[in-house]
């Protein structure tokens, strides 16, 4: 049973028949990244955006979560291969890539 919380990007057909892009979470082991300066994070973001421009519109970086020793980056992409290519070209680790199957939040309990 679908809820109003199902993300519109899990791959497959949408309500009007358009194809919807899958979403992935990439786990990057980067010891000490939580202590990175704003300038360092800006530089990494610029590098990532440059690679994304080169790869084209089929991959989109949604956002990233920075923890003490890891980054968790959310992407929309047709497959994990292009995410691995992004990591390779950008010089970033991609220790684990997981496809998002659905999303839940507090309203799921309603």
Please tag this protein with its features.
four-stranded antiparallel sheet, 110 residues, alpha+beta, two-stranded antiparallel ribbon
Question: Could you walk me through the main structural features you see in this protein, from its secondary elements to its overall organization?
Answer:
Helix content is 26%, strand content 26%. A hairpin with a 3-residue loop joins strand 4 (60-66) and strand 5. The protein contains two helices and six strands; from the N terminus they run E-E-E-H-E-E-H-E. The model is unreliable at 1-9 (pLDDT under 50). The chain is globular, with a radius of gyration of 15 Å. Helix 1 crosses helix 2. The strands form two sheets. The chain has a four-stranded antiparallel sheet with strand order 4-5-3-6, with helices on one face. The protein has 110 residues and is α+β, with helices and mostly antiparallel strands. The two termini are 13 Å apart.
Span of the ends, CA to CA: 13 Å
What's the number of helices? 2
From the alpha-carbon coordinates, what is the Rg to the nearest angstrom?
15 Å
Number of strands: 6
Biggest pleated-sheet summary: 4 strands, antiparallel
Neighbour order of strands in the largest sheet: 4-5-3-6
Secondary-structure element series: EEEHEEHE
Structural class: alpha+beta
Per DSSP, what share of the residues sits in E-state strands of 2 or more residues?
25-35%
């Amino acid at each position: 049973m679908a809820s109003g919380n199902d993300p519109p990007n899990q791959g497959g057909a949408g309500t009007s028949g358009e194809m919807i892009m899958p979403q992935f979470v990439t786990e990057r082991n980067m010891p000490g990244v939580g202590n990175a300066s704003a300038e360092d994070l800006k530089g990494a973001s610029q590098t990532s955006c440059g690679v994304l421009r080169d790869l084209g519109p089929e991959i989109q970086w949604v956002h990233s979560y920075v923890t003490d020793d890891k980054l968790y980056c959310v992407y929309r992409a047709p497959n994990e291969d292009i995410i691995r290519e992004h990591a390779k070209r950008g010089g970033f680790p991609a220790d684990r890539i997981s496809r998002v199957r659905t999303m839940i939040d507090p309203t799921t309990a309603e």
